[in-house]
Backbone:
């Protein structure tokens, strides 16, 4: 087995593709990227987060690809729930260990107990793999609870997933946690970086006896760099800050992370799981307050809409010119997607556009900006800025003008569109930063 860096991930993905994964086409198209690396110094040359999303989208011909950046699946019945919702791009975000389940066709039950090759923090030092957990645990197995000893030694099981349907794309991702200086969870769609171990609860004494960290075990900046280094495309994918309300994320730390690197793309604005358990009375599915805080301070912050462990709500609808992994990950980098609570085609945006004297005006003489949108059914539109809800209308089309002298007051504009039936569907545009 090989370690999880960009080059080796792509090579191993190619091998697995021979068994039927759609990665064969992916690798043929994008093999040139396999040799690229990205140094820390290059971060300074990374374009800033796009302050005017959708600018180059050809809405009439763009594919609207349903997907998410944070969804768990370790077996077919869980994966099938995404497929049944029409997801065409999978970036499964599992943990314990936080390692890509991609390509899905390679995954077996107990896979990472038998094929753990990525580094792990042990006793405060980064220790290179591979790790033979049967040999590591054997000396203290008698100290392990009997109910866990029954599953030892670890044996590899059968396939965890059936082959993906034709046309379903996939890319690496994982949910990373246990940073030494921040209580956050981070997904990294498009990154092959892997961290941690299988033994989340120290059931096999790997933490107490072996001193193996079950998460990143690193300061967040250092771990972020490793995630950036693992991106399979230099111009696509990035990092998401997960469930800010559930994590009790301090807004100043959120801002520090967003300002650290443009590839920290944004935050989860909606996380189904975060509001669905009585175990976390402080939590909520929505983190719009965090979102608007960042935007009101002039920081472009993309919004993500995810099921997590929920499976029935939270969708990112990517807008891409071609159905490729590269284009899907580029859409995330550029902010070319919108969020939906339900998905399933209940309500769709047909266009979202902001134009002012700073971008194309079709020869118009403009003294400000115009935000316009259209949906495929009548919707209740709201426009939100730093001032709150500044415009509402019920229609299939929306148009809102903001004068240049008011840019500093509004700071940003974003759209919410509510379905007028009883479906509970809500659509969210990405924000437009003014000025």
Residues:
């Amino acid at each position: 087995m090989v370690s999880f860096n960009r080059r080796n991930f792509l090579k191993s993905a190619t091998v697995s593709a021979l068994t039927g994964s759609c990665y064969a086409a992916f690798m043929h198209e994008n093999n040139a990227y396999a040799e690229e690396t990205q140094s820390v110094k290059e971060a300074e040359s990374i374009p800033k987060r796009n302050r005017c999303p959708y600018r180059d989208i050809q809405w009439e011909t763009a594919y609207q690809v349903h997907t998410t950046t944070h969804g768990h699946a370790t077996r077919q019945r869980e994966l099938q729930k995404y497929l049944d919702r029409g997801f065409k791009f999978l970036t499964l975000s599992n943990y314990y260990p936080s390692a890509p389940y991609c390509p899905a066709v390679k995954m077996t039950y107990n896979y990472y107990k038998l094929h753990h090759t990525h580094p792990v923090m042990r006793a405060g030092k980064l220790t290179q793999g591979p790790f033979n957990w049967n040999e590591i645990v054997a000396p203290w197995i008698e100290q392990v609870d009997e109910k866990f000893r029954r599953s030892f030694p670890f044996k590899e099981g059968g396939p965890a997933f059936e082959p993906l349907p034709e046309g379903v794309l996939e890319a690496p991702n994982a949910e990373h946690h246990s940073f030494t200086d921040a209580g956050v969870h981070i997904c990294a769609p498009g990154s092959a970086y892997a961290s941690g171990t299988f033994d989340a609860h120290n059931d096999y004494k790997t933490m107490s006896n072996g001193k193996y960290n079950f998460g990143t075990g690193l300061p967040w900046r250092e771990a972020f760099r490793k995630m950036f280094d693992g991106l399979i495309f230099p111009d696509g994918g990035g990092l998401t800050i997960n469930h800010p309300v559930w994590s009790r994320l301090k807004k100043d730390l959120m801002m520090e992370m967003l300002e650290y690197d443009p590839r920290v793309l944004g935050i989860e604005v909606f996380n189904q799981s975060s509001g669905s358990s009585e175990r976390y009375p402080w939590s909520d599915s929505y983190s719009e307050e965090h979102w608007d805080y960042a935007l009101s301070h002039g920081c472009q912050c993309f919004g993500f809409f995810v099921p997590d462990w929920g499976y029935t709500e939270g969708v990112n609808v990517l807008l891409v010119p071609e159905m490729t992994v590269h284009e899907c990950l580029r859409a995330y980098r550029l902010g070319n997607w919108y969020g939906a609570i339900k998905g399933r085609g209940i309500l769709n945006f047909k266009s979202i556009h902001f134009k002012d004297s700073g971008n194309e005006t079709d020869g118009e003489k403009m003294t400000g900006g115009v935000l316009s949108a259209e949906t495929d059914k009548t919707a209740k539109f709201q426009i939100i800025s730093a001032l709150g809800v500044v415009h509402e209308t019920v229609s299939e089309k929306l148009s809102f003008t903001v004068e240049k002298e008011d840019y500093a007051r509004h700071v940003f504009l974003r759209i919410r569109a509510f379905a007028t039936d009883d479906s509970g569907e809500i659509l969210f545009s990405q924000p437009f930063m003014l000025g």
